[in-house]
Amino acid sequence: MKVALALLADYANVSQEGKLNILGIFDRINAQSVPATHPQMQLIITLEADRVEADREHKVEIELIDEDGNKLFSIGGNLKFGPPPPGEKVRLNHIMQLNNLRFDHFGSYEFKILINNMLAGEVPLSVVELKKSQ
C-alpha cells in the first residue's frame, strides 16, 4: 500500500461519482503571534493498494511532529478493503478534518503518514510570522 496523494487544504469532498474535489491547497500558515490556532483545515490522503494487500488489516497512523521532533498529536486505526477488479488497484480517499489546531511556535511542522509502522508519506506545514507593516 502506498500514499498516492497527501496534502492540506481548506476543504475537500468526494462526489457521488467518486471524484475527489479539493479547494485551497496550502503548506503555510501566517500568524501574527504564537501560540496560534488554525480554525479548520483538512488533511487529504489517497491510498493506493493492489490485490495482494486486500482482505487483511493494515495499521494506518497519522502524526503531527514539530521541528524539534515533538509529537503534537497522533491518530490511527485499522483499514481493511476487498480485492480490486483484475489488473486494477484500489484507491481510497480519506479526508480528515482538523479543527482548532494549536501551534506553539513559528517554524516547520510535518504530518507523517505511517502504514504498518512504516513511513509512507509526509505533508510539510510551515507556521510563519506575519510581519506587521510600519
Concise overview:
This protein has strands spanning 2-14, 20-26, 28-31, 36-49, 58-66, 71-79, 90-103, 107-115, 118-129.
Question: Overview of this structure, please?
Answer:
It is a single chain. With 134 residues, the protein is mainly β. It has a single domain (2-128), classed as Macroglobulin (MG2) domain (Immunoglobulin-like, Sandwich), CATH 2.60.40. Helix content is 0%, strand content 68%. It is built from no helices and 9 strands. The protein has strands spanning 2-14, 20-26, 28-31, 36-49, 58-66, 71-79, 90-103, 107-115, 118-129. A hairpin with a 2-residue loop joins strand 8 (107-115) and strand 9. It starts with a strand and ends in a 5-residue tail after the last strand.
User: By helix and strand content, what is the structural category?
Assistant: mainly beta
Relative helix content: under 10%
Strand sequence of the main sheet, in spatial order?
3-9-8-5-6
Please report the first level of CATH classification, the CATH class.
Answer: Mainly Beta
What count of helical segments does DSSP give? Answer: 0
Most strands sheet: 5 strands, mixed
Beta content comes to over 45%
Query: Overall 3D geometry?
Result: elongated
User: What is the helix/strand order?
Assistant: EEEEEEEEE
CATH superfamily: Macroglobulin (MG2) domain
Break the fold down into its secondary structure elements and pairings.
Blueprint: E1 2-14, E2 20-26, E3 28-31, E4 36-49, E5 58-66, E6 71-79, E7 90-103, E8 107-115, E9 118-129
Parallel strand pairs: 3-9
Antiparallel strand pairs: 1-2, 1-4, 4-7, 5-6, 5-8, 8-9
